[in-house]
Amino acid sequence: MSVFITFEGGEGSGKSTQARVLYRRLLKSGIPALLTHEPGGTPLGTQLRRRLKGEGEIDPQTELLLFNASRAHLVSQVIRPALKEGTVVICDRFAASTTVYQGYGRGLDFDLIEAANNIATQGLRPDLTVLLDIPVEQGLARKSLRDRFEREEVAFHRRVRQGYLEMAKKDPERWLVLDASLPKKEVTRIIWERVEQILPNG
Ligand SMILES: Nc1ncnc2c1ncn2[C@@H]1O[C@H](COP(=O)(O)OP(=O)(O)O)[C@@H](O)[C@H]1O
Ligand SMILES: [Mg+2]
Fold this sequence. Notes:
Layout: E1 4-9, H1 15-28, E2 33-37, H2 43-53, H3 60-84, E3 88-92, H4 95-105, H5 110-121, E4 128-133, H6 136-141, H7 154-170, E5 175-179, H8 184-198
Helix pairs in contact: 1-8, 2-3, 3-5, 4-5, 4-7
The structure holds adenosine-5'-diphosphate and magnesium ion.
Adenosine-5'-diphosphate binds next to helix 1 and helix 8.
């Protein structure tokens, strides 16, 4: 049985921190695991990431497709093959990020987003999505240098946060919503408790 876990949340919520800790813990427990992230995770994805996060305007439709181009490549080249081998795959951001940033954030049509996301994911859905929820200002304050998204206005980030909470509410079986303002170790403990339940032979 394959297990696919994704981390979602606003800027500075601790996604990369907790994804790394979970990855190390799995390896330490002797469980084959792979840690990757979006956008990026492949050489092509890294090029797309640089452009998406760097300087220069990108219209919302193009942005939607660039994120999904990176995702399509990552799913077909990295995530699917790893899951097929029985590796636990952890991804720092996935399709839900596009729904909230391009949908709730930018105001793109949700059907359009779903269609684009479905092409990229080939219908692959996470078994568990950890949502690290934190007040916008608190998360942003944890970041020093700001990229193109982190520099968006506070109202944008509030819509993103709201969007995540709505998504999680619609699918409570797959989403674990956590208070990301808790100490790192406490967040780690709660995540591990849930992950243990979905691991094979767990
Ligand atoms: N629970 C926490 N409490 C306080 N600081 C945290 C916590 N989790 C992460 N951080 C710090 O906040 C910053 C952003 O964390 P990061 O994992 O990069 O967030 P994200 O990937 O969600 O943007 C880092 O400096 C990290 O060490
Ligand atoms: Mg990060």
